[in-house]
Amino acid sequence: MQKIGVFGGTFDPIHYGHIELARCMRDTLQLDCVRLIPTGLPPHRAPSRISPQQRFDWVKAAIANEKGLVADNREVVRDGYCYTIDTLIELQQDTLAALLVWLIGADSWLSLNRWHRWRELLDIGHLLIAARPDYALEGLSADLSAEFRNRSVIANTETLSRGKISLLSSPLMPVSSTKVREMLARGEDVSALTPVFDQIKASGLYRF
Ligand code: ATP
After folding, report:
1. Residue numbers of the domain that contains 73
2. CB 9 less than 6 A from any atom of ligand 1
3. Rounded to whole angstroms, what are the CA distances from 27 to 22, 65, 104, 143, 145?
4. Residue having the nearest C-alpha atom to atom 20 of ligand 1
5. Ligand 1 binding pocket includes 11 (Cβ within 6 Å)
6. How far apart are CA 64 and CA 72, in angstroms?
7. Which of 43, 47, 94, 112 has its Cβ near the most Cβ atoms within 10 Å?
């Protein structure tokens, strides 16, 4: 069965933490590809000052030489709000026989019960959760804890399955787009945090 990794995010901008997570899921679970899907209009936060197309272009440039990592612009070109549920359903319809393996960080997992149609989301593919510094999974709400108890399996190529949840065995990476934006606003060099520092600098965006 084809196994398609799905990694959505604002990517405002993309950083090495994102890339490392995409590589990690691709390699540890032998996925055929990982689709990085920048948000268009995000439902849960104020829209970024950087346009969806610009964030997508940087994602594309950042992973241009990464085997199996694909920049997907479906949310960028969609009109109106973008919900993850719509994106996953659309992807599943595009590739009916494939298993979708989608990834979120621990911060997203802790608030997943506020996402649109979140319980249905859990039924569509296999969810991977990546640990993140400062986001302890002990603070999980009762409804998410129950879902995790019922659905969790150790992630490996044998256990990947629709409706399951696993922790991805990934390194803890203390990097965020917030940190990158703050450093850029101060005119600092972020080439250690993102592969697209030169393009960002040349764009003059983020008030560099
Ligand atoms: P911001 O600081 O603007 O909130 P971010 O660094 O969290 O941005 P997003 O594009 O919002 O980046 O993240 C996309 C997904 O990647 C989310 O599910 C988030 O939890 C996860 N993620 C991002 N950075 C990390 C990291 N360093 N470790 C684990 N997960 C991460």
Report:
1. 3-171
2. yes
3. 9, 16, 17, 31, 28
4. 105
5. yes
6. 12
7. 112
Is the minimum distance from the CB of 69 to ligand 1 under 6 angstroms?
no
Please give the distance, rounded to the nearest whole angstrom, from the Cα atom of residue 155 to the centre of ligand 1: 21
Distance 32 CA to ligand 1 centre (A): 23
- Residue 157 in any domain: the answer is yes
Question: Mind listing the pLDDT tens digit for each residue in 45-92?
Answer: 666 789 999 999 999 999 999 999 999 999 999 988 889 999 999 999
Task: Identify the three-state secondary structure at position 26.
Answer: helix
CA distance 7 to 21: 9
DSSP code of residue 36: E
182 lies in some domain: no
Q: Is the CB of 10 under 6 A from ligand 1?
A: yes
Ligand 1 centroid – CA 176 distance (Å):
6
Which protein residue has the closest C-alpha to ligand 1 atom 21?
105
CATH number of the domain to which 7 belongs = 3.40.50.620
Q: Under a CB-based contact definition with an 8 Å cutoff, are residues 135 and 159 in contact?
A: no
**Domain contains 35:** yes
Residue 189 lies in a domain: no
What is the per-residue pLDDT across 89-141, written as a single tens digit (0 to 9) for each? 999 999 999 999 999 999 999 999 999 999 999 999 999 999 999 999 888 99
Number of domain units in the chain: 1
| Residue 153: CA count within 13 A, CB half-sphere | 13
